[in-house]
Design a protein that fits this description.
Blueprint: H1 3-12, E1 18-20, E2 23-30, H2 35-51, E3 55-60, E4 63-71, H3 74-77, H4 84-95, H5 105-110, H6 115-129, H7 133-147, E5 155-165, E6 180-188, E7 193-200, H8 215-223, H9 233-240, H10 248-262, E8 267-274, H11 282-290, E9 300-304, H12 305-315, H13 320-329, H14 333-342, E10 349-351
Helix pairs in contact: 2-14, 6-13, 7-12, 8-9, 12-13
């Protein structure tokens, strides 16, 4: 690349940065972004620009903030999705959203950095793939290879793929709106049934908030038959005394276990899928593992997004949508190159602003 090319790229860099109506000449990175989020936000700003979508905005206290990872009119253009089929499915889910579901239309259609549309882009194509037995078996091989390395679960077929799932019987679970970003239902070689609940994180942190009424989750973890045996005595004591706050990672795990019990399933797993460089949730993940008894630690696992996507591409090489997914979310070459160019540019600052 020539010096002129680099200068041209720098002159366009404002397209990929935030600004506000309060100071429209000041372009900036968000001060709250860690190194990975900064790189990913810049990457998704480039992807938004490549899609042809105009930069979107949010308003707070009379100020309009323009964030380059937000698009305008995504509910019309479908710019946040890898193909038209995924876009149509997303529109259908919003149109027929149940009262208790928590799908946020603005994030789904317009926020290129959000994990919610990422889950739609990754798992909707898998819904199509498992419409035949070959697809069911191949996806089962992926799940086994990543989650059952000791071949103890004997996953044979993936029978259903779901996205943004809150069970209709949620009041019999935790009685809150904790959701699975995605799930895989499976059958084993000996006919047993199970569910793999998946939490997808791109740059996001696991929520630290508890349920508005944590008493049900506390009772579920410490007293509910079939679930309390999973936790160590020390862990249950800390939960009972509220020394462990049942934040998102615990509620996700408990939701999975209550679904297993309610549906009389034989097995269940809770999985977090995130890019390997998103290390912001390691402490929460370690804390949950520490209060699971040794024989049940397999029930909670973390898989890198890179490994998951590579396994899918390897198993389904003719499905181009997964390569497009990799390019959209995991190819950071452009943003890394831009950051390198910007390293010595003093006019680009870090500042605070509403995080999106």
């Amino acid at each position: 690349m020539t010096i002129n090319d680099e200068l041209a790229s720098l002159s366009k860099i404002q397209t990929y940065l935030s600004h506000s109506s309060d100071d429209p000449q000041k372009y900036y990175f968000l001060k709250s972004d860690n190194a990975f989020t900064k790189k990913a936000r810049l990457s998704q700003a480039v992807r938004r620009w490549q899609s042809g979508a105009e930069c979107g905005s949010i308003k707070k206290e009379g100020i309009t903030y323009y964030h380059p990872n937000i698009a305008e009119d995504g509910h019309i253009t479908g710019c946040n999705f890898l193909n038209h089929e995924i876009f149509l499915y997303a529109k259908s889910r919003v149109q027929h959203k149940k009262q208790y579901e928590t799908i946020r239309e603005d994030r789904l259609f317009n926020n290129f950095l959000s994990s919610q549309p990422m889950a739609f882009n990754l798992f909707h194509p898998l819904m199509k793939i498992i419409k035949n037995d070959e697809g069911k078996r191949k996806l089962a091989r992926i799940a086994s290879g990543l989650l059952d390395k000791n071949n103890t679960l004997n996953i044979d077929l993936i029978t259903e793929v779901g996205i943004e799932f809150i069970p209709s019987y949620y009041k019999e679970c935790l009685n809150d709106k904790t959701a699975m970003d995605a799930f895989l239902r499976y059958i084993t070689t000996d006919g047993k049934k199970g569910i793999i609940a998946i939490e997808t994180k791109y740059t996001d942190k696991l929520g630290c908030n508890q349920a508005s009424d944590p008493s049900i989750a506390i009772k579920t973890a410490t007293k509910r038959k079939g679930i309390e045996k999973i936790f160590t005595d020390e862990g249950k004591e800390k939960i009972s005394k509220k020394e462990i706050k049942l934040s998102q990672i615990y509620r996700n795990f408990l939701l999975t276990e209550t679904v297993r019990c309610y549906e009389n399933l034989d097995e269940s797993l809770s999985v977090v899928i995130a890019p390997k460089d998103n290390t912001s949730n390691k402490s929460d993940e370690r804390d949950l593992l520490n209060i699971l008894k040794e024989g049940y630690k397999y029930k909670f696992q973390v898989v890198s997004l890179e490994d998951f996507v590579k396994a899918i591409i390897d198993e389904f090489p003719d499905e181009n949508v997964f390569r497009k997914f990799h390019d959209r979310y995991l190819d950071f070459r452009t943003s890394e190159w831009l950051l390198k160019l910007l390293k010595n540019v003093e006019c680009i600052q870090c500042t605070r602003g509403p995080v999106v």
